[in-house]
Amino acid sequence: MYLTPQNILLAGATGLTGEHLLDRLLNEPTVERVLAPTRRPLAEHPHLENPVGELLDLLPQLDGKVCTAFCCLGSTIKQAGSQQAFRAIDHDLIVAFAARAREMGARHLLVISALGADADSSVFYNKVKGETEESLKAQNWPQLTIARPSLLLGSRDEARLGEQLAAPVMRWVPGKYRGIEATVLARAMWRLALEEDAGVRIIESDQLRKLGR
After folding, report:
1. What is the rounded average pLDDT of the residues 152-173?
2. Cβ(170)–Cβ(206) under 8 Å?
3. Whole-prediction pTM value?
4. Does residue 20 sit in helix, strand or coil?
5. Alpha helix (H) residue ranges in the chain
6. Fewer Cβ within 10 Å of end Cβ, the chain: N or C?
7. Is position 172 within any domain?
8. In 10 A of CB 178, how many CB atoms?
9. How many structural domains are present in the chain?
10. Does residue 207 carry a pLDDT above 90?
11. Per-residue CA distances from 23 to 9, 73, 186 (Å)
């Protein structure tokens, strides 16, 4: 059985995956409205509402009913500047966004986590990702879809040297560890949004690649 999301809330629309997902949503005839708060303005579109500012400040101002929420927020420790700043984005902001989406009526949250997410991990990055997943589960969503992609492949506005060096290798490693194109991930996220499967689903990178073909 499938649901058709009509009113969408999207965080991270200017990111590598978020921009591809936004383009797909705006070209879906079943989508009536996309509410996408961003720090910099997006190109105008008749089905797009684009509040501009810091997301944490914008959250209380968002209005209107939504049925599905996508969270494509994500950073790195280097990009954020510190472990504390990274956690503020990749845990606190994501959890706050999800809570606001639930208040606005969303029944399905789809969030991009990371391969290896584990609240008990000794690796700080993986630990924070895992703790975020646990915090979202605690919100008791009717439907929660957690995507765990491997290294995201694609052209970013900002350079990430480590990803650039790893990308050629990650295109060829086997199974779920192989890198995944952001366009493929965006297609997978949309297809997952159309599925009615109550409860929590965790989709690993190899499954995401199949769904996004």
Report:
1. 54
2. no
3. 0.88
4. helix
5. 16-26, 55-58, 77-80, 83-87, 94-103, 124-137, 161-170, 182-193, 205-211
6. N
7. yes
8. 17
9. 1
10. yes
11. 14, 16, 9
Q: Give Cα separations from 72 to 1, 28, 98, 111, 166 (angstroms).
A: 25, 19, 11, 6, 21
Range of the domain at 165: 7-211
**Mean pLDDT, range 44-66, rounded to an integer:** 97
Residue 83 lies in a domain: yes
The pLDDT assigned to 15 comes to 94
Residue bearing tokens 């995507």: 147
The CATH number for 119's domain is 3.40.50.720
Joined tokens for residue 177: 């560890």
For 73-130, the pLDDT digits (tens) are 999 999 999 999 999 999 999 999 999 999 999 999 999 999 999 999 999 999 999 9
In a domain, 2, yes or no: no
- Residue 42 domain-assigned (yes or no): yes
- Residue type, position 75, single letter: S
Q: Tell me the residue length of the chain.
A: 213
SS3 state of residue 74: coil
